[in-house]
Design goal:
Helix content is 37%, strand content 15%. It has helices at 9-17, 23-36, 47-59, 101-108, 151-158, 175-181, 215-225, 243-246, 271-286, 302-315, 329-339, 343-363, 391-401, 406-411, 439-450, and strands at 42-45, 70-74, 112-117, 137-138, 141-145, 164-169, 184-187, 207-212, 255-258, 290-293, 369-373, 415-423, 426-434. The protein has an eight-stranded mixed β-sheet, with helices on both faces. A three-stranded mixed β-sheet has the order 1-3-2. A two-stranded antiparallel sheet has the order 4-5.
């Protein structure tokens, strides 16, 4: 048998079910790897809880499908009895008394959490760094950042500390680190995953998703999460055919639009990003699809309106003046910026995002999927984002880094970053997106390209 950490979640679950290893043995194996890691992938590790849960699962006569498979939850996700810091020293000792919806669903399938993965303060940035444990690092080059905000999850999956990990995505926070670290990162359609009654979605921008090393693991986790949850304001019905069955079906011949030019005129795609898309185009054409190059259809006016909504969400957090000094400079920047927007400006921004993205997608009705770079730049040095000391420059550099992903959050479209290319030793992802609701089709094509 292969090393346990080389297996995806399906194969590891099968090995446990066949008696080739036990839940406790598998848990110890991965905990040992986590203990030795130097990537900053975790904020909190919970070995006692993990081993106790593994022993309980070993004792079950009938085990759930992924019994004994390790995972970990992003530290923006509330976990009962396990501290949830949200990447902030302000919440360093915060221990929730309940689980978020996603935790219950993942654990019901038998997964064992090893702890909480690294995230930037309140998940606000496209790189992962905080004042608790420092940066999450790219396994291919630890001098570079793993991306954010699900950077710890991506680093853990890429370094084979976990076969898969849940993440959340409000502007690219799953797909950005997936590209940096060379794993699969999937953001479902808006409403596909019910957030539950106490998990804000930032006006529909954010959703839970997954980082994994195989498409079948991605599809299986989507099946776990894609079920209606009372208290969620945006809910799709559970799929008639599970994604775990749909993903392996051969798609019909598709018409796929592609572009590499960012929608912001001061941003340029790197040589590696353009090469990654060119490689993906060849693969899609070889699979029988029609790939059509078009001009970037998204207007630059979306960016400032997105920022109004994004910053207003941060400004809505009731933070007393005396704690502001405990926050990172980037967090204070977004809190202060959001506080300057009026109610009318917020309403106008929300309306602009909805109407504009609806219009763009209507104009693209003749296409089935959309192919772009995931990022304009590869993983960047850990200090690159903040070295100027100016949070406005920090934000400008984030736009230079990631001008593609947030568009899919504005529109609610499903999108996946695939690790199909390596440039100068660094992984470079490509992003495939579909029309809202086309999650299964997206997984089918991802499976074609990953097979």
């Amino acid at each position: 048998m292969s090393e346990l950490h080389d297996l995806d979640a399906h194969d590891l679950a099968a090995a446990i079910a066949a008696g080739q290893t036990s839940c406790v043995e598998a848990t110890r194996h991965f905990l040992d790897r986590v203990e030795r890691e130097e990537l900053g992938a975790f904020i909190t590790v919970t070995p006692e809880q993990a081993l106790a849960r593994a022993a309980v699962l070993d004792a079950l006569a009938e085990k759930p499908p992924f019994a004994g498979v390790p995972t970990a939850f992003k530290d923006l996700t509330s976990t009962a009895g396990v501290r949830t810091t949200m990447g902030s020293t302000l919440l360093a000792q915060n221990v929730p008394d309940h689980n978020d919806h996603v935790v219950n669903l993942i654990e019901a399938a038998g997964f064992i959490s090893l702890g909480k993965t690294n995230t930037p303060e309140f998940g606000l940035s496209s790189y992962t760094d905080n004042d608790l444990v420092g940066p999450a690092r790219c396994p291919a080059d630890p001098s570079r950042n793993a991306g954010g905000s699900s950077g710890g999850a991506a680093a853990a999956v890429a370094a084979k500390l976990l076969p898969l990990a849940p993440g959340s995505d409000g502007g690219g926070s799953i797909r950005i680190p997936a590209s940096c670290c060379g794993v699969i990162g999937f953001k479902p359609s808006r409403g596909r995953v019910g957030a539950g009654p106490d998990s804000p979605t930032w006006n529909g921008l954010a959703t839970d998703g997954v980082l994994a090393r195989s498409v079948r693991d991605t599809a299986a986790v989507l099946d776990l999460l894609a079920r209606p949850m009372p208290g969620s304001s945006r809910v799709w019905p559970a799929p008639v055919v599970p994604f775990a069955k749909e993903f392996s079906q051969e798609p019909k011949r598709l018409r796929i639009a592609t572009w590499t030019d960012p929608y912001l005129d001061f941003v340029q795609a790197s040589v590696g990003s353009i090469a990654a898309v060119a490689h993906a185009r060849e693969m899609l054409a070889a699979a029988g699809h029609e790939v059509v190059e078009i001009a970037n259809p998204w207007p630059a006016e979306l960016e400032p309106q997105f920022n109004v909504v994004w910053s207003a969400g941060m400004a809505a957090v009731p933070l007393p003046a005396e704690v502001m000094g405990m926050l990172r400079q980037n967090t204070r920047y977004w809190h202060e910026r959001g506080g300057k927007a009026s109610a009318a400006e917020l309403a106008a921004a929300m309306g602009f995002l909805e109407l504009t993205t609806n219009s763009v997608n209507a104009s693209l009705a003749d296409f089935d999927l959309f192919l772009t770079p995931t990022l304009a730049l590869p993983a960047q040095p850990n200090e690159w984002f903040t070295e100027s000391g100016d949070p406005a420059e920090d934000h400008r550099r984030e736009l230079l880094f990631t001008p593609y992903t947030a568009l899919m959050n504005m529109s609610g479209q499903p999108a996946i970053s695939l690790p199909l290319h390596v440039h100068e030793g660094l992984p470079v992802g490509v992003m495939l997106a579909g029309h809202v609701g086309a999650d299964a089709l997206l997984l089918q094509v991802a499976n074609q390209l990953s097979g």
